[in-house]
Structures are given as C-alpha cells and as structure tokens.
Amino acid sequence: MFVCIGRLSRRRKPISSFTALHLYSTTAATSTATSSKLHTKYSFIPPPSLKPQQNPSSTQPTKKLPKPRYRPPSSLDRAGLDPVKSNLPFDFRFSYTESSASVRPIGLREPKYSPFGPGRLDRSWTGVCAPAVDPKEASIESEQELAENRRVMRERIQGEPLSNAERKALVETCQRHRTKRQINLGRDGLTHNMLNDIHNHWKHAEAVRIKCMGVPTVDMKNICTQLEDKTFGKIIQRHCGLLVLYRGRNYRPKKRPIIPLMLWKPQDPVYPRLIKTTIDGLSIEETKQMRKRGLAVPALTKLAKNGYYGSLVPMVRDAFITEELVRIDCKGLERSDYKKVGCKLRDLVPCILVTFEKEQIVVWRGKDYKPVQDGFFIADRELFDDLQNDTVQVVDQNEKRYALQEAQELYSGDE
After folding, report:
1. pLDDT for res 167
2. Per-residue pLDDT reduced to its tens digit, 272-282
3. How far is Cα 100 from Cα 102, in angstroms, rounded to an integer?
4. 223 and 217 Cβ atoms separated by less than 8 Å
5. Which strands form 393-394's sheet, in the order they lie side by side?
6. Which of 96, 125, 167, 270 could covalently link to 114 via disulfide, CB atoms 3.0 to 4.6 Å apart?
C-alpha cells in the first residue's frame, strides 16, 4: 500500500498545449539570444521598420507630397543656357526629299512654333524650314555661298577617293549576312533627325546601309543627291532601294557636326490643290468623260505598300507612247501616299493629273505630248568600279540592249 502511494505521488500533472507552446518559445528565444553572433560578429543593427513602436498613438502619418505636373521637354526652363548654334550650311527642314524650296505654300495650319523647342535653336522657324541665313537678308549670293561651303566641307571630309578593293571591302561589311545595322527611309523620306542617326552609325563603322521604301523611291536620284549633300558622305553602292553610304577618309566622330533634334513633327503647310475642277484646255463635260474613261482603262501596275517604285516613271513614259490615259492601282495605300506619288509623276514624267478617286491614280499625257529624249529605262544598279578615274558607271538597260543587237549583227556578218 505504501508503494502504491509513493508511485502515485511521483506522477506529473498533464501540461496544456498553450503552456507547452509558451515554454518552447521562451526557450528558443533564450537560446537564440545567447547563440546569435549577429551583433557581436557583424555589428548587425535592425532597421527601424523592424523595431516595435513604443507609442504608436504619438506618431502621426506624414502627408505625401503631391507629384509634380508633367511638362514636355520643350517647355522646360533652360536655366539661362544659350541656344544651340549649328554651323551646317543648309536650311533645316523636317524632310529634305519630300519638300522643295521652290514650291511655296499658300498657308499654314498652325502658328509658327519651332519644332526644335522655344529658345533651343539660334535660327527662326518660318513655318516650313529654319533657314541658315536670315530671310530678310537672303539673296542669290548667299545661296551660292552656302552651296560652296557644302562642297568644300564634303571634299575635306571625303579626302582621296576609294580604290576598287577598298570599296568592295566596305560594301561586303555592310551586307545582310555581316551586320544587322540598317537605317530605314520610309514615307517621310530623308528627315532631319535621320541625319543624327547616320552619324551615330558612323561612330561604329565607316559605312552604313540604308533601305529606301515607299513614296520617296519614285525619285531615287533625289534621295542620293540629298543624302550626299546633307551628310557630306558618298554613296558607294546602290541596288534598287538599298544604298551604302560611306563617311569619308577624314571623318572624325568626335568632331561630328552639331545637329539639333526636332522634338515633334511640324504640321504640313497648305499647298494648292493637285486636282482641279476642269483640266486646262478642256471643258467641264470633257473633263467628266475623261475621268470616267480613265477609271475604266486597264491598270498599268499595282503599287505595293512600302514597296520600291523606282521603275514607275519609265513605265508611265513607255505607256504614253501608245496610250493617252494611264491608270495606276493604289489600293491599300494611304491617301496622302498616292497623292505624293501623283505629284512626283506630274513633275518627272511630265503629265497631267486627272483624278484620285477609288484609290486610283489616273494621268493624262496631254494634247501635244512629246516623248522624253533621255530614254525610258533607268538603272536599278550602279557600278562604281573604274580603273582609271573612279567615276560612276551606270548600267543602262537600253544601252545593254543596243550592245547586244550590235554583237548579234557582227556575229551574223562573220558567218
């Protein structure tokens, strides 16, 4: 009996789960505090966000400052900085290939806000361009002086002409399988900001590949002329719409010209209407009948979006030999694009615009049409190899055809 009482006295009381959890957390905290070396070894101090707040009622939430209103870069204060001065000897335009100094607009769609931003350029904006010479002081002598300065700068940068081996090596480095660097020239043509892109490419390579697409390719000669005139470079290869532009022997990237950037695209000015109510020399009824006949004739060709239109002018010239009206299908193109194409055809063929209805371009050759004497074929490829003086040799399809005929005649005569 005694033994049983002793055994019963040594039994422990059961511990509840809450008590066991409290004992475990106290023991773990004590062991962690004694075994942790963060403070002694690493001098660890917990951030304030981890420390418990002693008196949370005393701290008041601070008010968040309001976010400043957005202001575009053009309206930011320049803090008394002087406007950018550029010594480039030509007028700054948004597009150098799609605008001409000889064509004057009849009005402006907006006030004369400079696309370079207020107070950022030392040239005034006329609504169309930022002239290098004050329009009040402009004269024929000043234009000739600017042209001479461009020629001198280009000759100084180009230096000695490239040899055939050097040109071929540069062209090879710009091929698609060698580099992906390329500048795309689209519907706006050679824009002002594209000049800065070309110089940025010239920092890494001596030549840059340019792909021309869309409306500007109707007049590839103008694209090549403007590229060489505005960048002071030289085109060393051309195949359809692909160009290779060389920077020159004496080009120094650190001494590149200052090109201020346009911050936005200016509004196009108002030009005279391309399609008149009546065609010159015809009555109202004759004009209506001609437009109906023009929309009914078979289409000469269909223009693809962002395609190459370099062969369009000779095609229209050839068609005018036998046809009076020519229709060009422009379905899928923007209305502004095929209007620009029609304007270029009017000046290059030349011809008379009849209508732009139903996404078609209809042109008339006129009453007293005379074929152009400079040929009806243009070169899709230009060869720049010349062992004597490195002059440009243009491969003309018409000359090749005549050469082939002469060779056949000589061959038949020998037999």
Report:
1. 94
2. 999 988 888 88
3. 5
4. yes
5. 183-185, 207-212, 242-246, 234-239, 381-383, 393-394
6. 125
